[in-house]
Write a structure and sequence with these properties.
This protein is of the alpha/beta class. It has ten helices and 13 strands. The protein has a five-stranded mixed beta sheet with strand order 10-9-11-8-12, sandwiched between helices. A three-stranded parallel beta sheet has the order 5-1-6. It has a three-stranded antiparallel beta sheet with strand order 2-3-4. The longest helix is centred in the N-terminal third of the chain and has 19 residues. It starts with 19 loop residues before the first helix and ends in a 6-residue tail after the last helix. The N terminus is likely disordered.
């Protein structure tokens, strides 16, 4: 009886703002986010697409729902400290957090934090710092909340508090649009080639749940995307955020599309990201959690998601 392989231990599959691929992705995401923001005309219903230029095909944008309606309770007020709550973020990782045209921090995470502050009716400030210094700055009381793409892990929860996830890193399949390939399943992928990053959580997941697929390992995501575009592999299985950018960007030249559903198993792909506070600030963490629920309930989350994700990874 074969044993199910384990995912890489404590490995984050989130795109890193400090990596070469992460910075390349970030620049492209910034261009897309600014284009979407420049033509944004206000809130739209869930699953609607943000406006685009007339010659651009308009895809359906799926807005993820991470919220449990049964978790709603009485409104939680933020503790009154007599000063603004200081949010810390990074400004080099679009569409989640980046420097806007005026130089101030913006992005999906930053604007979500501002929406939370509005719900709590508390003054807030947002300060950008280098990504790898954010938790140290929080620990040393240079800020009160980290709002950035830092994955929630057991190690992090051992030192800090965090709200429920407000964003997660889905794994997705992509395939060429002209091949007529079936929607991925354990049966459909039998004998078909699938590109993955070697040694990644995606590779482990593919081996465990699509054992008859022909796994092709790559060390560089751009190389894997190129192989998909040239038809050298049938599918690519990777981080949905990066794949959404690729298939919707100029590099792909409309060769490929996401196919099948999203994969969100915590054991392989993590819990996602939340608002992080110090352990002694439990009252603030609970208030942030409650405000996130209310931001979802009133449609503000959907508005922000559609603004900053011109192509959805979900």
């Amino acid at each position: 009886m074969s044993q199910t392989p384990s995912p890489p231990s404590e490995r984050s599959i989130a795109p890193s703002p400090s990596s070469r691929d992460g910075r390349r992705r970030a620049r492209a995401w910034l261009a897309a986010a600014l284009l979407a923001a420049s033509v944004w005309a206000g809130p739209r219903p869930a699953c609607a697409a943000p406006p685009t230029e007339p010659h651009v095909a308009t895809p359906t944008v799926t807005v993820p729902d991470f919220w449990n309606p049964r978790s709603r309770g009485e409104r939680v007020e933020a503790p009154q400290t007599g000063r603004a709550v200081r949010f810390l973020t990074d400004d080099e990782f679009p569409p989640l957090h980046f420097a806007g045209p005026d130089g101030n921090p913006t992005g999906f995470v930053v604007e979500l934090a501002r929406a939370v502050c509005e719900k709590l009716t508390i003054p807030c400030t947002v300060q950008a710092r280098r990504f790898d210094t954010l938790l140290d700055a929080l620990d040393s009381r240079q800020g009160d909340v980290v709002a950035a793409a830092i994955p929630l892990t057991a190690a992090l929860r051992g030192k800090f508090l965090a709200t429920r996830p407000y964003f997660r890193w889905p794994a997705r399949f992509a395939a060429r649009v002209d091949k007529g390939l079936p929607v991925p399943s354990a049966t459909a992928l039998a004998g078909r080639s699938v590109g993955v990053m070697g040694g990644s959580a995606h590779a482990a997941y593919l081996k465990a749940f699509f054992p008859k697929a022909v796994q092709k390992d790559f060390t560089d995501l751009a190389a894997a995307e190129g192989a998909l575009k040239r038809g050298e592999i049938d599918y690519l299985f990777a981080d949905g955020l990066n794949l959404a950018l690729y298939v919707g960007g100029q590099e792909a030249e409309a060769c490929c599309a996401l196919t099948g559903g999203d994969y969100l198993e915590n054991r392989y792909f993590g819990e996602g990201i939340g608002l992080i506070t110090r352990q002694e600030d439990g009252a603030l963490s609970r208030a942030l959690d409650d405000a996130l629920q209310r931001v979802w309930d009133d449609g503000k989350y959907t508005e922000l998601y559609l603004r900053f994700f011109p192509v959805s990874p979900f």
